[in-house]
From TrEMBL:
<dbReference type="GO" id="GO:0016853">
    <property type="term" value="F:isomerase activity"/>
</dbReference>
<dbReference type="InterPro" id="IPR002130">
    <property type="entry name" value="Cyclophilin-type_PPIase_dom"/>
</dbReference>
<feature type="signal peptide">
    <location>
        <begin position="1"/>
        <end position="24"/>
    </location>
</feature>
<keyword id="KW-0413">Isomerase</keyword>
<protein>
    <recommendedName>
        <fullName>peptidylprolyl isomerase</fullName>
        <ecNumber>5.2.1.8</ecNumber>
    </recommendedName>
</protein>
<feature type="domain" description="PPIase cyclophilin-type">
    <location>
        <begin position="78"/>
        <end position="255"/>
    </location>
</feature>
<dbReference type="Pfam" id="PF00160">
    <property type="entry name" value="Pro_isomerase"/>
</dbReference>
<keyword id="KW-0697">Rotamase</keyword>
<keyword id="KW-0732">Signal</keyword>
<dbReference type="InterPro" id="IPR044666">
    <property type="entry name" value="Cyclophilin_A-like"/>
</dbReference>
<dbReference type="InterPro" id="IPR029000">
    <property type="entry name" value="Cyclophilin-like_dom_sf"/>
</dbReference>
Length: 255
């Protein structure tokens, strides 16, 4: 039993390291945007740039006027259909706002960790700017990092003690089935308790419980997980960037 527990602890530690390495790349490029502004680069977007001071007010107003909750992400591998959660109103409004402005049509799936997650929303070729803001976290115990979960990336260090989300970088979870023993360890780590239904999800379809209560989950894939799996099969370089670009186009389906 002692050897079994040692092996489990070792595997859990290794998985946590993988999670941290992946999420270290989940940082919005606010420093680059600030540098561009200092250098006098023109804002080529018709999208009103947001700031930390205006983000909540603008998104709250936008959320009331834009009830969209169905999203379609088109890629060269096919389409991914997602449903956004109304219980995470700021994140839903932000995603819909950027989508309707065409911001995400200049993005790509730029980081891929097979079996873990695919990350999109950014691109070195983007001309549209959204402003140097973060979104207040909207953790909800109902929504976990199951396979197919849609969540926002964020800074993960001392610069972000409130775990605020990136303005635009998102990821879709792949993940693998977890054991009950692993889930109990994550419950203790995150001071939470999974419901029987959530345990069933994690032990059957899988996911990434290490990310729960760390990143805001605000939607889920309802069609097209096979497309996510195809993206995850893309050959990548040493930084987990796909060798061949995987651009995406995103639109709302409600109206």
């Amino acid at each position: 039993m002692k050897n079994m527990m040692s092996a489990f602890s070792s595997n859990l530690f290794i998985h946590l390291i993988i999670c941290l390495l992946f999420m270290a790349s989940c940082q919005p490029k606010t420093e680059e945007q600030a540098t561009a502004e200092k250098n006098g680069e023109a804002n080529k977007s018709t999208l009103e740039p947001l700031t930390s001071e205006t983000v909540v007010e603008v998104l709250t107003t936008f959320e009331k006027e834009n009830p969209d909750s169905l999203i379609l992400i088109s890629t060269r591998h096919g389409d991914i259909k997602l449903r956004l959660y109304k219980e995470t109103p700021l994140h839903r409004a932000n995603f819909v706002r950027l989508t309707k402005a065409g911001f995400y049509d200049q993005g790509e799936f730029y980081r891929v960790v097979k079996g873990f997650a695919v990350q999109g929303g950014d691109s070195d070729n983007r001309t549209m700017k959204q402003g140097p803001y973060k979104i207040p976290q909207e953790f909800n115990p109902k929504y976990i990092h199951k396979r197919g979960a849609l969540a926002m990336a964020r800074y993960g260090d001392e610069r972000n003690p409130d775990k605020e989300s990136s303005s635009h970088n998102f990821y879709i979870v792949q993940g693998e089935p977890r054991t009950l023993q692993e889930l109990r360890a994550y419950e203790a780590k995150h001071n939470m308790q999974y419901t029987p239904a959530q345990i069933e999800l994690y032990t059957t379809i899988g996911g990434e419980p290490a990310l729960d209560q760390e990143y805001t989950v605000f939607g889920e894939v309802i069609e097209g997980m096979d497309v996510v799996d195809k993206i995850s099969d893309e050959p990548v370089d040493g930084q987990k960037w796909p060798i061949t670009i995987v651009p995406h186009k995103i639109k709302t389906l409600n109206n």
